[in-house]
Each structure stands twice: as structure tokens, then as C-alpha cells.
Amino acid sequence: MSKCLLIFLTFTCGMLYFTSVTLPNYSGNYMNHSNASFTNQLLPTYQMESTHFFPHLPIQIYTANRQKFLQLKNPRKQIILLANSFFGDPQWEIPSLKNRTNSGNMSEIFCAFLNNHCEITNDMDRFHEADAVVYHAVDMINRSDEKLRTRRQSQRFVFALWESPKHYHEYDAYDKFFNWSMTYRLDSHIVTPYYTQYGYRSKDYKIPIEEKFDSQPKHVLFKNINPTQKLGTAAALISNCDVTINKRLEIIKDLEKYIDVTIYGRCGQPCPNSTAHDRNACRAYLAERYYFLLAFENSVCEDYVTEKLFATLLLPIVPVVYGGANYTRYVPESAFIDTRKFPSAKELSQRLIQIRNNITLYQEYFRWKENIIWDGFTNFFTPFCDLCLRLHLDNTSNIIGNINRWWTKDQCT
Ligand SMILES: *[C@@H]1O[C@H](CO)[C@@H](O)[C@H](O)[C@H]1NC(C)=O
Ligand SMILES: *[C@@H]1O[C@H](CO)[C@@H](O)[C@H](O)[C@H]1NC(C)=O
Ligand SMILES: *[C@@H]1O[C@H](CO)[C@@H](O)[C@H](O)[C@H]1NC(C)=O
Ligand SMILES: *[C@@H]1O[C@H](CO)[C@@H](O)[C@H](O)[C@H]1NC(C)=O
Ligand SMILES: *[C@@H]1O[C@H](CO)[C@@H](O)[C@H](O)[C@H]1NC(C)=O
Ligand SMILES: *[C@@H]1O[C@H](CO)[C@@H](O)[C@H](O)[C@H]1NC(C)=O
Ligand SMILES: *[C@@H]1O[C@H](CO)[C@@H](O)[C@H](O)[C@H]1NC(C)=O
Ligand SMILES: *[C@@H]1O[C@H](CO)[C@@H](O)[C@H](O)[C@H]1NC(C)=O
Ligand SMILES: *[C@@H]1O[C@H](CO)[C@@H](O)[C@H](O)[C@H]1NC(C)=O
Ligand SMILES: *[C@@H]1O[C@H](CO)[C@@H](O)[C@H](O)[C@H]1NC(C)=O
Ligand SMILES: *[C@@H]1O[C@H](CO)[C@@H](O)[C@H](O)[C@H]1NC(C)=O
């Protein structure tokens, strides 16, 4: 089980059908804002596009109405109630919620363009007003709270979770409790992918959010790195040494027969002192010294791809991934090496050696970045923008019959 340290824009985290539910089809219905003008005051018009593009955007909603203009017509602010805590924090890291009777505005969760459309609160006294009642499924949910008995039909109870089902899966008691899911899974009502931390977009995508951002690429292009400084072939940063969780360490052991692999973190060498408490700093240290970073997920589950990959993409090192996601849904195939594409550690090692020994080939793994900008406009909680939009746009009712089944069945290997 993992504990997250969440600070706006700097995120270090060791973490993380059958039902009566009709979940929206995942078909790449990404919002295309390019023909909409956005101001804080004006109601935006959204164009739904069935085409999708790299990189996927953090703001995405799913509706059956493809290629249709949608408008936020409802003048009433939708109220989002954070009904329990986030890893013990009743404030969910949102500054103004420190005082429970205050409400937060959407700029605080990086959705300034929705300031007039939603309000966020953690005040349970406002339960009856709330349009969405969000529960972080890791923290305690007080089912005996009297207020729940007078739940309104129109309220959406939201199951919010960033962890994989390998960690938390006791949701048997929640049949017909939730209306919407909000997880990293692409078939969730609101998708909370880990890349919301590491906002990247194609160069021609216009940011709808009135936030300060730097449009210069923050990542390192290959021309800025010097592979001759690299000391070793591969490194891994691992804090959970439990071999029973998955085959991660087993694969590394096999790779070690053919190439040098250095493990850092709790299961290996400590990260150097100055980076010991900052995984991103440690990753940056490794990126200078190795050709490949083994971005192996601790859970091999559908769609589960974490900052292990997304944080690595910012650095002058090539990620070697292992996990249950279809990675090409998140980044171009030329950005990473997928362990599962190789029949054995031997073949994978041979490929890594080939790439390591050929600068031109190594360089090709960074070329996709020429069209991508990282700008830091995003945040771990950006999916709340989607929640707000959905409260305005989706008036259909939905009951998640068996959340436990949806969450766990056939998800992990
Ligand atoms: C999902 O997509 C499939 C194939 O395109 C289609 O047959 C099905 O009706 C869709 N379901 C919903 C709920 O839209
Ligand atoms: C977004 O929509 C505009 C206008 O319809 C279109 O020209 C553009 O190609 C679309 N962009 C993407 C990335 O789909
Ligand atoms: C963009 O929006 C304007 C105003 O709604 C419309 O006239 C124009 O045709 C749109 N352009 C595209 C490419 O959809
Ligand atoms: C919380 O905010 C309310 C309304 O703004 C104010 O009346 C109250 O004094 C504040 N409480 C604290 C402890 O700051
Ligand atoms: C939103 O909240 C922040 C923090 O409380 C505040 O600084 C900002 O002025 C507010 N913005 C709007 C538009 O209300
Ligand atoms: C749950 O809610 C009930 C009723 O509001 C309250 O009495 C009880 O203290 C709450 N339990 C916890 C653990 O917060
Ligand atoms: C790291 O810190 C420890 C304890 O403070 C110290 O003993 C050690 O020498 C330091 N290592 C380096 C490489 O600075
Ligand atoms: C993975 O995703 C890509 C891009 O969305 C798609 O073309 C491909 O068919 C998917 N592969 C699998 C095995 O689902
Ligand atoms: C190095 O890789 C490039 C790009 O794939 C290839 O064209 C070239 O032949 C390779 N060089 C050697 C010596 O294998
Ligand atoms: C949802 O909104 C649409 C368009 O405003 C309306 O036609 C439909 O009846 C509404 N459905 C429900 C269940 O309220
Ligand atoms: C939400 O779920 C509850 C409990 O199953 C149900 O009574 C209610 O009608 C649902 N509301 C909406 C808007 O889907």
C-alpha cells in the first residue's frame, strides 16, 4: 500500500462487465477545443471529435453524441462535494478548503475556465445542495451518516480512485451506491490518468485554460544530452521489493544475465543524498547516467500506467515499460520500449544493446518530442474539470450495480 505526497505541480507518489452499468464507449472522443474561444466569463462551446491525436489530452469527456456541438447552458453552478478525505486529508490539498465553510473555485484545481460553472466544497452540511458527492475510495466512507438516507435522485455519487485494483478491492458493500466512476481506467466516466501531472500536448493544441504557462518545451531533447556521459546500460527505481506482487524483479534478474542493470531505491542502492526524498530528482540523476530506465509498474492491470512512465518521458533517457496498459494510447510507439513485445529477457537485452551502441538509433527515441510541449498547466486534480463539465453536459441517469466487479474483474494479471 502506498502513501502519496501531493503538492500542487510537484507530485511524488509511490503508488499510484457485467454490471447494470452502461459505461460510455471508449472510442477516443477527445474534446477538441481548437475552434472554441474561451474566456473566464463566456460559456465555452465544445466540439466533440471522434478523431484523436497524440498526445491524449487530460481534459476529455465521453458522450454518445459524437461530433456534435455541446453547450454549457445550465447557468447554475454545479456543486462538487468532497465527501471524505484524500489519503486522510479532508482538504484534498485545496488551499481554500482549509476553512470548511469556504468553498473553492475551479482555478484552484487548474480549471479557471470553469470558475462560473462549478464550485467545490468539503462541507458536509451542504450535502443536500451537492450535485456530485465524491468519495476517495481509499479513505473511509461513513455509510451510517444520516444524510445519506435523504440522498436526492439527481445527485451523482462518484467513486474516485487512482490506485490499481491490486491495492484496494473491497467494494462489495457498494452495490448501487455510486453513479459515476472516476479512475485512471479509460472506461471510467471521468478519466484520471497519471499524465495529468506531466501535462504534454501537441504544439498546435491551443490551451483553453487561463493559467500561466510556459510554452517552451521543458523536456530535454536529445541534442542536449551527451550519451558518452552515460555510465551504465539500465537503471530501475523501485521502492516496493515485494516479489509476490508481480514479476518485475524476476524480469530484472533475467536481464542482468545479459546487461548491467542497477537498482536504486529501497530494493537496491540508495538514491544519492540530495535526491533521497524526491523520486523525480533521483530519476533525473539516473537519466544522466544510464541509457534506459526500467519503468516497470508494480501492478500489471488494464490501463494502469503511472508517473513511472510519465515522469521518465521528461528526461534524457529511454523508458523500458512493463505493465498492463496499451501504451500506444498514451504516447507514440517511438517513445518507449515495451518489455512484453519481446519473447524473453535475452531478446530484449539484445535490442537494448543494439540501441545503446548506435547513437542514431538511440536518438530516434526522442524525435517524437519535437512536436510535443510539456507545459505544466496540468495537475493531479485536473480531472475535476471533466467532472464539472460532465455535471453540465450529461443528464442521463446511471447506477453502478456492482462496482467491485467492474473494478476488479479481469483487470490484473
Ligand atoms: C459501443 O460500441 C459498439 C461498437 O462500436 C456498439 O456496438 C455499441 O452499441 C456501443 N455501446 C454504446 C453504449 O454506445
Ligand atoms: C479540431 O477541430 C478543428 C476544426 O474542426 C480541426 O481543424 C482540427 O484538425 C481538429 N484537431 C484535432 C487535433 O482533431
Ligand atoms: C468555428 O466556429 C465558427 C463560429 O461558430 C464557425 O462559423 C466555423 O465554421 C467553425 N469552424 C470550423 C472549422 O468548424
Ligand atoms: C471561515 O470562513 C468563514 C466565512 O468566510 C468565516 O466567517 C470564519 O471566521 C472562518 N473561520 C476560520 C476559522 O477562519
Ligand atoms: C479563486 O480562489 C483563489 C484562492 O482562494 C483566489 O486567490 C482567487 O482570487 C479566486 N478566483 C476567483 C475567480 O474567484
Ligand atoms: C458517521 O456519521 C454519523 C452520523 O452522522 C456520526 O455519528 C459518526 O460519528 C460518523 N462516523 C465517523 C467514523 O465519522
Ligand atoms: C549521505 O548522508 C549520510 C548520512 O547523512 C552520510 O553518512 C553519507 O556520507 C552521505 N553520502 C554522500 C555520498 O554524500
Ligand atoms: C492499442 O492502442 C492502439 C491505439 O489506440 C490501437 O491501434 C491498438 O489496436 C491497440 N492494441 C491493442 C492490443 O488493443
Ligand atoms: C544505426 O541505426 C540507424 C537507424 O536505425 C541505421 O540506419 C544504421 O544502419 C545503424 N548503424 C549501424 C552501424 O548498425
Ligand atoms: C437531457 O437533456 C436533453 C436535452 O436538453 C433532453 O432532451 C432530455 O429529455 C434530457 N433527459 C433527461 C433524462 O432529463
Ligand atoms: C444515482 O444512484 C442512486 C442509487 O442507486 C439512484 O437512486 C439515483 O437515481 C442515481 N441518480 C442518477 C442521477 O443517476
From TrEMBL:
Its EC number is 2.4.1.-. Residues 77-194 form the Fucosyltransferase N-terminal domain. Pathway: Protein modification; protein glycosylation. InterPro entries: Glyco_tran_10_C (IPR055270), Glyco_tran_10_N (IPR031481), Glyco_trans_10 (IPR001503), GT10-like_C_sf (IPR038577). It is a single-pass type II membrane protein. It is an enzyme of class 2 (transferase). Residues 229-406 form the Fucosyltransferase C-terminal domain. It comes from the Eukaryota. It is found in: Golgi apparatus membrane; Golgi apparatus, Golgi stack membrane. GO terms for cellular component: Golgi cisterna membrane; Golgi membrane. Keywords: Glycoprotein, Glycosyltransferase, Golgi apparatus, Membrane, Signal, Signal-anchor, Transferase, Transmembrane, Transmembrane helix. The keyword Transmembrane helix applies. GO terms for molecular function: fucosyltransferase activity. The keyword Signal applies. Residues 1-21 form the signal peptide. PANTHER family: ALPHA-(1,3)-FUCOSYLTRANSFERASE C-RELATED. Belongs to the glycosyltransferase 10 family. This is Fucosyltransferase. It comes from Adineta ricciae (Rotifer).
